[in-house]
Amino acid sequence: MRMKMFAAETFDAARALVFAEMGDKAVILSEREIDGRVEVRAATDGLKRAGGDRPMFMSGAANDTAAAPDNSLIAQRLRDALQWHGAPRRFVERVLHAADTTQADPVAAMVPGLEAIVGFDPVPTRPDKNIVLIGPPGHGRTSTGAKLTRRAAMAETQILPVAADFDATAGGEQLSAYLERERAQVRIAADPDALFSLMDEVNRHDERCVIDLPSILPFDREDLARVKDLVAAIDAEPVLVISAEGHPEDQAEASRAYASAGIKRAIVTKLDVARRRGGIVAALTSAKISLSHLAVTPFIGGGLVPAAPSRLAALLIEDARGEDALRGANS
To answer: Which of 44-48, 74-78, 281-285, 301-305 has the highest mean pLDDT?
Structure first.
């Protein structure tokens, strides 16, 4: 059985979307009103007509074999999905402008729209430069550092995990707890001078490391300035680690603040927790920060998926847990 959530301005419009896509045998499971709009969850045993191979919205009344998808219906499907996911109106309109609504599959239709405005730039398994993870408290920097380390090990290369424990919060112990297999690789720098010495050693041996900095609040300008100076001194790339949770406007302001510190890439976490994912994508896009990886599970092994238009479209079309929408993606 296939279940899907449809959103529209009215219940009649939402039901029309259900039966247009799922067919007249679709079953309405639930209906609710939220934020001035309505949501209808429906289910069906399949998306095909009894005698056809295409989804219902591709079928024509007279000649099913020659019919094309209803462009307006596909566009509305994309609009409803993006609005349900909390994407701002400007972002929605820009995606729709570049989307390919001749496609029958909503995910395929959305891909060109995302490619046109969203940056995608995954961090290589062995990065060109050392990586410094920056972000607010509670957004998963330490676990992301562990995931990058484990990903490198699985690819038969190595990244040294470094805990910059400047605030004496036992960051090294937490990182070691995540990395039981790679515990011997964990390095701890108690202050900036220790980090500078460690980086000299890493560079002499042509190694790479991922540095977990203490949390940095986006609106603390002095902290951001210090981090910018630190990153420049060690010649590393700052990568933002930011949760998909939160209000879209807060996410947008935070993203712009981090971008002012020279951040060009971001790893989005807690996609397994956040149901609405449009806000963070729009926020990073408005700040000209590219998506690097998507964190879809709390598990250290295989917990990062390289960001790509088709994967992001799957997350924004379906009301599904991150690991379900991206099942089968390589980390």
So the answer is: 281-285
210 neighbors 159 (Cβ within 8 angstroms): yes
Q: Which of 242, 192, 237 is nearest to 216 (CA)?
A: 242
pLDDT of residue 62 exceeding 80, the answer is no
Cα-only R_g, the chain:
22
Q: Give the neighbor-by-neighbor strand order of the sheet with 37-44.
A: 2-8, 37-44, 27-34
At 75, give phi and psi (nearest 5°): -60, -40
**20-39: pLDDT as tens digits:** 777 777 777 677 777 667 77
59-70 in b/e form (b: 16+ CB < 10 A) is beeeeeeeeebb
| Cα 71–Cα 75–Cα 77 angle in degrees, nearest 5 | 115
What's the confidence (pLDDT) of residue 106?
A: 92
- The angle subtended at Cα 103 by Cα 97 and Cα 105, nearest 5°, is 110
Question: Would you give the DSSP letter of residue 272?
Answer: T
Window from 42-46, 251-255, 325-329 with minimum mean pLDDT: 325-329
Q: Would strands 265-269 and 237-243 be described as parallel, antiparallel, or unpaired? A: parallel
Sign of CA dihedral 67, 68, 70, 72: negative
**Can you tell me the distance from the alpha carbon of 331 to that of 236, in angstroms, rounded to the nearest whole number?**
23
Query: 32 to each of 7, 78, 266, 272, how far by Cα in Å?
Result: 10, 20, 34, 23
State residue 45's pLDDT score.
Answer: 60
